[in-house]
Amino acid sequence: MASEHSTRTRTRASGSFVRSTPGSQSLERGLLLLRAFRLGGRTLGNAELAERSGLPRPTVSRLTRSLVDAGFLAYDHQQQGYRLGPVCLTLALVYRASERALEVALPLMRSLAEGRRVNVGLAMADQLEMVYLDSVRLSRLGMFRRIVPGSRIPIASTALGCAFLSGMAVAERKALLARLRQAHGGGWPALQRGVDAALASVRAQGFCRAQWQAGMVSVAAPLRTPGGELYALNVSFPVPAASTQEGDENHVGLLLRLAADIQAAWAAADL
After folding, report:
1. When you count CB atoms within 10 A of the terminal residue's CB, does the N or C end of the chain come out lower?
2. Residue 242 carries which DSSP code?
3. Contacts (Cβ under 8 Å, ≥6 apart) of 20
């Protein structure tokens, strides 16, 4: 039986992963290189990998060799750079198939998107960005259809990111805000004002609103499964649709009803 002070017991009690044993620095650095690859680009050289990861070039060279040997990277001789290996697709598909919360939520998201011609997305945080688990893009103007599962957007300047922040435990949110402050440097004070306003909006009304890309407005809310997993849900739509208070309120109503329907479905599925 695990003692009351064991890391397994503390993990179960806190709802956060706790381990007292040190991690592997080499593994963490290798994963930084894998995170450097984004949608829209095929290959990256050692210089680009060093710039994106913040690691020294000699370290990158050693790690890319190991990642190629393990099959996580492949070297493209024509492009003279690295691309992800096929095993990464296997991992992505395994993750997607294991996301029961998304499986339950997706039919409800599609029904709203198709019925009301809006864009609906579900996302989680990874490092300092939000990652879309899925996005149903059906707004009338057909904008930003490049948003697909795996797309990444900023946390601090988006409704999805601020909604996720609002749902975090206080200590975890403070830690993430400290990392965002360090990452954004001199631009943080302006971003922080928006984050503070969004957090206050979620506390008071259950949602926050942002327009971080020209032409589109997003309203978002935090969602948590009965098991404690945190997500953020958004409904986005063209700016003309939000040109009146009534139009904006209609989309907020859609978001909040969808959030309630998804949480009810999660509870019924015993997630």
Report:
1. N
2. G
3. 7
- Angle (CA) 136 93 154, round 5°: 50
Amino acid at 98: S
| Lookup: tokens for 204 | 């008071």
For the record, the structure tokens of 249 come out as: 């309120």
Using one digit for the tens of pLDDT, what is the confidence trace for 47-82? 999 999 999 999 999 999 999 999 999 999 999 999
User: What is the dihedral angle through the alpha carbons of 271, 256, 102, 217, rounded to the nearest 10 degrees?
Assistant: -150
- Nearest-angstrom CA–CA distance, 18 and 9: 9
Token representation of residue 170? 């206080």
Amino acid at 52: R
Q: Which pTM was predicted?
A: 0.85
Q: Are 141 and 154 in contact (CB under 8 A)?
A: no
How far is residue 63's CA from residue 72's CA, in Å, rounded to a whole number?
Answer: 11
